Amino acid sequence: MIDTPSSRLAQRLAVGIPALLIGGALISQYGFGLYPCEMCMWQRYPHYAAIGLGLMSYVLGPPRLWVALAALAILVSGIIGGFHAGVEYGWWQGVTDCATAARAEGVSAIDAISAAPMIRCDRAPWDLLGVSLAGWNFLISVSGAISILYLLAKRKPR
To answer: In which band, very low, low, confident or very high, does the pLDDT at 1 lie, cut at 50, 70 and 90?
Structure first.
């Protein structure tokens, strides 16, 4: 059982931050057609892990360990997002090629691949205030992970 208000907030954030970021990514993909590139997908995997780790803190002990592990997973996603944002802004070279969002529903695989849009890792398909989605993931994930770890480190008032 988590015993302080700050630890309970950390526990909620450990589930809430990655859930909201994944939700936003899925809405942008399926609702607005912003298909993810390979590096976008890399950022999602640690968030999925963080959701699982955060939920485990509610049922397995010690909960502070699970919350800390979730925070580290969120931090990993943020670091990947920062690297991806740097690739998008041309600060450094990426480590992957472009990807496609091919679906072979009712057509041959070759036709599906030929008709699929090319998703480039070095171009931001959308930005807000000059910050790409990968950049926002970096900002939110890193600050969120640091906040969670800070809240966990706070001591119980005497």
So the answer is: low
What pTM was computed for the model? 0.79
List residues bridging with 128 in a β-sheet.
Answer: 131
CA atoms within 13 A on the CB side of 138: 16
Listed by start position, the domains of the chain span 5-90+106-153
Tell me the pLDDT tens digit for each residue of 102-154.
555 666 767 666 666 667 667 777 777 877 888 889 999 999 999 999 999 98
In the chain, count of helices (H) and strands (E)? Answer: 5, 4
Round to whole Å and give the CA distance between 72 and 78: 10
Burial class (CB in 10 A: 0-12, 13-18, 19+), 90: exposed
- State how far the Cα of 55 lies from the Cα of 113, in Å rounded to an integer: 38
DSSP state of 97: -
DSSP code string of 65-99: HHHHHHHHHHHHHHHHHHHHHHHHTTSS--SS--E
Q: What CA dihedral angle connects 119, 124, 125 and 129, to 10 degrees? A: 170
For residue 145 the two structure tokens come to: 């992970």
Region of 27 (left: φ > 0; alpha: ψ -120 to 50; beta: rest) is alpha
